[in-house]
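dude i think i finally got it to work??
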Amino acid sequence: MFRPDQPPAVAARFARTGEPKAQALYSEDERARRDGTRWTLVQGVLAPAQFLVFAVSLVLVVRFLVSGEGHEAAVASVVVKTCALYLIMITGCIWEKVVFGRYLFAPAFFWEDVFSMLVLTLHTAYLVALCFGLLDDRRLMLLALVAYATYVINATQFIVKLRAARRGDARRTARDEASEWVEWA
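look at this
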């Protein structure tokens, strides 16, 4: 449905087709800021590193739950994973501030950020339970698995969103190149 507060491009699309055009993830200015900041590279390095830490930790946690062996390694791995999560959240907030002008809940990543709060809450709950002895070893590892499940969902949210943005960038590049070719011909 058309809304008067829609950007002109969306309003024009709606006028032609009766349906609003899907918004690009980044405006031209935001794309330029994204491409021009070192924080994009930082996020690009930290995300797969965090996933690797997660994968190793997951194996250690499951190993402990199945065999009862390797408790200390499993606990340490969850702590390392949680520290990696905090690091990527802090640097992600800085990236979001540089690109979108706010530290969290930019419209382009609103729901990903909302779910990130749940991920942070569960990982922090793990640390609190560990430090204060609130759960036995098994329940502590089950809490870690719940936190990890939310992490996987959240990581999937970001991957889907960023892949869509990459496809949009590729379409925009192809369209621009085609326009240049038509103008040249």
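DSSP finds six helices and no strands in the chain.
im so relieved honestly
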